[in-house]
Design goal:
This protein is mainly alpha-helical. The protein is 58% helix and 9% strand. The chain has 4 helices and 2 strands; from the N terminus they run E-H-H-E-H-H. It has a two-stranded antiparallel sheet with strand order 1-2.
Length: 65
């Protein structure tokens, strides 16, 4: 079963075109933001919807163009 709710570090690096080590920093930062909001996080993975919103890849940002 594939889980599309979370993105792995490798996926983040590919989408953003950055190194894997930098993608780890981004995932960690986003997960820290989610923890402060009271959400459960998984190390090395980030919620896909939150990632898309924070990196301007959400549907809302495309509609504004």
């Amino acid at each position: 079963m594939t889980n599309n709710t979370f993105m792995k570090v490798e996926e983040v690096a590919e989408v953003l075109g950055v190194s894997k080590s930098y993608a780890y920093k981004i995932v960690q930062q986003l997960n820290n933001e989610l923890k402060k909001k009271g959400f459960l996080t998984i190390s090395g993975r980030v919620n896909k919807q939150y990632f898309m919103e924070k990196t301007c890849y959400s549907a809302d940002s495309k509609e504004k163009e």
